Amino acid sequence: MSDNIQQAKQLSPRRNSSHAETVQELAQEQLQHFGIDATSDYGQALYQAALHLYQTQGDVARLWQVTQNTLEGLSREDKIARFNAKKFLSFQIAKVLDTLQNPFRAVHQSLHRQQGSQLARNHYPLFDNVTALFSATPVVVRTATYVYACTEWVDDAFQGKEATHQIYSRLLNPTAISLANAIVDLEAGPYAAEYLAWNFNSGMAAIDGMLSNVLRHGDVLVVSRNIYGGVFQLLHDYFARADRLAIQLEWFDGYQADEFADFLAGVKARHADRLAQGKKLHVYLESPCNPHGYVLDVPGICRLAHQGNHLVMLDATLATPVLSQPLQCADKAERPDYLVHSYTKDICGSGATTAGVVIGENHRMFQAKGDKVNGVDWSQTMFWDVFYIKGAFLDSEKAFDVLNGMKTLEQRMLSKVINTQVFCRFLASHPDFRVNSHVVEGHPNAELRRKLMRHGWPCSLFTVDMEGASLDRQTFVRFFDSLEPAFSHQVSIGQNNTIILCPALTSHSELAEADQHAAGIFLTTMRVAMGTDNVKELIAQFIQSARLHIDPLRPGFSEKFMSPADIDALYQRVAITSAEQHYTSGPSMAVLLE
Q1: Which of the 8 DSSP states describes residue 286?
Q2: Residues 6+ apart with CB under 8 A from 531
Q3: CB-based contact 418:380 (threshold 8 Å)
Q4: Phi, psi values for residue 313, rounded to 5°
Q5: Region at 285 (left for phi over 0; alpha for psi -120 to 50; beta for the rest)
Q6: Mean pLDDT within 493-509
Q7: For a Cys-Cys bond, which of 179, 285, 323, 458 suits 439, CB 3.0-4.6 Å?
């Protein structure tokens, strides 16, 4: 049987039980399935319409095959022509569906003419949904469930074999799917076809879903030392508990690949018996890390981990796809197996939505029931193993908020990059401030920042402590509290406003004091999440707060900062350099016209 008839059968109400061998037989079967007299005027018109649809399905499938075979070698002009031709074809198909609505509505109304005091029956939802196909932005689909076509189609949907036939918004929602496609395109770029994303109701829900899918009882998990405090608590108080999953946690304090190689060898030696019994070893990284913003050699660590067949999970929230795109490494061995983001932070940017996402290779994220790909059974995929049963899905309104925020991500990150460089170098000019940021030249993490981050740009999250100033607690607290309103005293990151907090008392308060110190966190450590504010106004407030609360006890303290003229010159220099890096990094006109 030809590929054309197999494609056409996807449109049949008897797609799994049909014995038809031609599109004509498929059209006849369709009339029989719904009890339509093929000899009537209605039957003849319906037969012709169904026949053309089956033929169109085969033709469109052939268009897709031709596209796959020729896209790489097309000129830009040909790509533009083909894109617009297919766009118009989509409008034509939608127009046909819209034309169908008036006779569809008429039949529906004739079935439900209520009498007396009974209320009129509600309209059928398909009537209003067709024109939404022309919306210039993703439609916010507020529904719990969906109308299904026929028994065999919904049966396929429950088996995971009908991607366009959604069942329940706890599992799939068109708005959330639009967001999932958008983040995969941003992160994976030319490799987007290899990856799939599932959206969760928060970043922590995404991390929990990922860990729940990967970890099994008694496994060993290597974790980079500086991670978000909530993840530390999740690992320490849940996954590592003996009465839960008894995960063996091993904390990696380094950043370089060679440090990781030595550490991994030690972990394997310590847990040799456990691993010999079939337990697995996995790796969880956060880069850039919270709270200091340091980057790890993710490609090098992935390469080493994959040599031992260990899965690597990466929280890349602070990088965003603007600063780093680890899934676009040409060498697949250097890519993490899972990439997680808290959309709540920079990707959305508004501070009004909590959301998260996990991206992974297709075969690890979803397979139809009964399938097995690359040694992964369908039941082990994230969709069936976690997403399908836990219900931490992202609703359509939040998905829409994140999609809107993504439109301005690049420009917001450019502003934050400029502000971070200026503010960190301003702070580093004072001898009593220790700036924990790879912006500072000579910092141990600066080399990796230059190597791995786009243009060598810094993470907009960093810490600074005043341990060297020997301030008493009350003086420090008064100074810190006076930083409002220029600096927002909030506990999140990634918004437009600049946020400052003391990790020891907030985001990392779950850690014991010894663990805090091991992570470089002290009582006077301030975590700064740079926003898009006017950085010179931030600096002015910082200096004035020091004058107000520190100078009376430490005369001349505020005079140790760089001069106002030097700050102006620094800002101008950094802004011009960063803008030039950004605006000259795209393809030239000559390339675009090739």
Answers
A1: E
A2: 416, 419, 488, 495, 496, 497, 498, 499
A3: no
A4: -110, 130
A5: beta
A6: 86
A7: 458
CA distances from 381 to 173, 311, 336, 377 (A): 19, 14, 17, 7
Tokens 């609360």 — which residue?
549
- Residue labelled with tokens 């139809």: 368
Distances (CA, A) of 348 to 187, 315, 356, 405, 502: 15, 16, 10, 4, 24
Q: What is the 3-state secondary structure (H, E, C) of 189-252?
A: HHHHHHEEEEEECCHHHHHHHHHHHHCCCCCEEEEECCCCHHHHHHHHHHHCCCCCCCCEEEEE
Cross-strand partners of 314: 285, 339
3-class DSSP assignment, residue 176: helix
The per-residue pLDDT for 506 is 75
Single pTM value for the model: 0.92
Cα-only R_g, the chain: 29
In whole angstroms, what is the distance from residue 153 CA to residue 11 CA? 9
Query: In whole angstroms, what is the distance from residue 154 CA to residue 148 CA?
Result: 6
pLDDT digits over 110-146, tens only?
Answer: 876 555 545 555 667 776 777 787 888 888 988 888 8
Are the CB atoms for 118 and 129 separated by under 8 Å?
no
Going by their DSSP bridges, the two strands 338-342 and 312-315 should be labelled as parallel
Look up residue 231 and give its two tokens: 């993840």
Q: What would the two tokens of residue 55 be?
A: 């033929």
Segment holding 355, helix H or strand E: none
**Cβ–Cβ under 8 Å, residues 326 and 315:** no
320 touches 346 (CB < 8 A): yes
Q: How far apart are CA 379 and CA 534, in angstroms?
A: 51
CA dist., res. 35 & res. 30, Å (int): 9
**Nearest partner of 380 among 403, 532, 371, 280, judged by Cα:** 371
**pLDDT at residue 1, rounded to an integer:** 46
